[in-house]
């Protein structure tokens, strides 16, 4: 799964500008120096296998760039697409009145951490099991895995069809951070107003129990291989979400609007939280 998640994350930057045909993918992987030779011989090929299997969906050749030892486990790479500028959704044309659409739920970090804590029987799991069963955490983990391994290709195809004005993918800076970066570079003086946050089932409660709600509920929690955050005409938002659901079997959500402003992000103090159950 780690390899599949890495592939989805690598190609996401290409999909975020509306390019859908990837010409080449370069794989970079390293094993932690603390691994024994036997562990490296088992883990590295498994990670590479997942990456290569997921790359088949992109129909692009994969080149192995480097395999090395490192203090940390690294799996990633570079994706390249050659296309005409007219085929791209440039990330700076948001307009007042646009809708903000998000194509994957939030909460991947806490969902995966909760699963690890459960497996390790850690102190955090001791606190969580007063509220959650093993089956609850496994279900939350499955939702997160499906989300992280799903390519953003369908979103890229549809945002071109529905005349998107700007987009970015949501990863390490959280939905707030990536929205802030996107707003900063708009040609028009606009703000992104966020009023809804879709969060993976059980994650909001996990955060509350462990005292980790602040970042999650403000949209600042770290995400891995998150969805596309798209600005598109408000009249196109519902058709986009409907066709996205038909294409992927998964939901996309209108999470806010683009309004006149100063190129920033405004979080509604009464933001609506949605519990996402797509297991």
TrEMBL record:
GO MF annotation: an example: ATP binding
Tagged with keyword NADP: no
Family annotation (InterPro entries): PurM-like_C_dom, PurM-like_C_sf, PurM-like_N, PurM-like_N_sf, SPS/SelD
Keyword entries, A-Z: ATP-binding, Kinase, Nucleotide-binding, Selenium, Transferase
Pfam name, any one: AIRS
Annotated transmembrane regions: none
Domain PurM-like N-terminal, chain residue ranges per copy: 2-80
Superkingdom of origin: Eukaryota
GO BP annotations, alphabetical order: selenocysteine biosynthetic process
Cellular compartments per GO CC: cytoplasm
Limits of the PurM-like C-terminal domain: 95-264
Keyword Kinase: yes
PANTHER family: INACTIVE SELENIDE, WATER DIKINASE-LIKE PROTEIN-RELATED, SELENIDE, WATER DIKINASE
NCBIfam families the UniProt entry points to: selD
Protein name: PurM-like C-terminal domain-containing protein
Originating organism: Anopheles atroparvus (European mosquito)
């Amino acid at each position: 799964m780690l390899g599949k998640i890495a592939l989805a994350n690598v190609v996401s930057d290409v999909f975020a500008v509306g390019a859908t045909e990837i010409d080449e993918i370069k794989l970079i992987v390293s094993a932690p120096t603390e691994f024994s030779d036997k562990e490296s011989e088992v883990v590295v090929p498994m990670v590479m296998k997942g990456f290569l299997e997921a790359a088949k969906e992109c129909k692009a050749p994969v080149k192995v760039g480097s395999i090395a030892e490192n203090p940390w486990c690294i799996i990633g790479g570079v994706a390249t697409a050659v296309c005409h500028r007219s085929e791209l959704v440039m990330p700076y044309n948001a307009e007042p009145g646009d809708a903000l659409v998000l194509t994957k739920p939030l909460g991947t970090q806490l969902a995966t951490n909760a699963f690890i804590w459960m497996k390790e029987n850690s102190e955090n799991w001791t606190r969580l099991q007063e509220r959650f069963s093993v089956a609850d955490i496994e279900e939350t983990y499955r939702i997160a895995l499906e989300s992280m391994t799903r390519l953003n290709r369908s979103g890229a195809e549809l945002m071109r069809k529905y005349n998107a004005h700007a987009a970015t993918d949501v990863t390490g800076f959280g939905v707030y951070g990536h929205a802030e970066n996107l707003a900063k570079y708009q040609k028009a003086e606009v703000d992104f107003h966020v009023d809804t946050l879709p969060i993976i089932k059980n994650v909001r409660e996990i955060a509350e129990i462990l005292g980790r709600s602040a970042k999650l509920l403000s949209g600042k929690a770290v995400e891995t291989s998150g969805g596309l955050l798209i600005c598109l005409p408000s009249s196109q938002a519902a058709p986009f979400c409907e066709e996205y659901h038909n294409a992927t079997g998964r939901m996309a959500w209108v999470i806010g609007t683009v309004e006149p402003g100063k190129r920033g992000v405004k979080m509604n103090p009464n933001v609506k939280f949605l519990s996402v159950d797509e297991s």
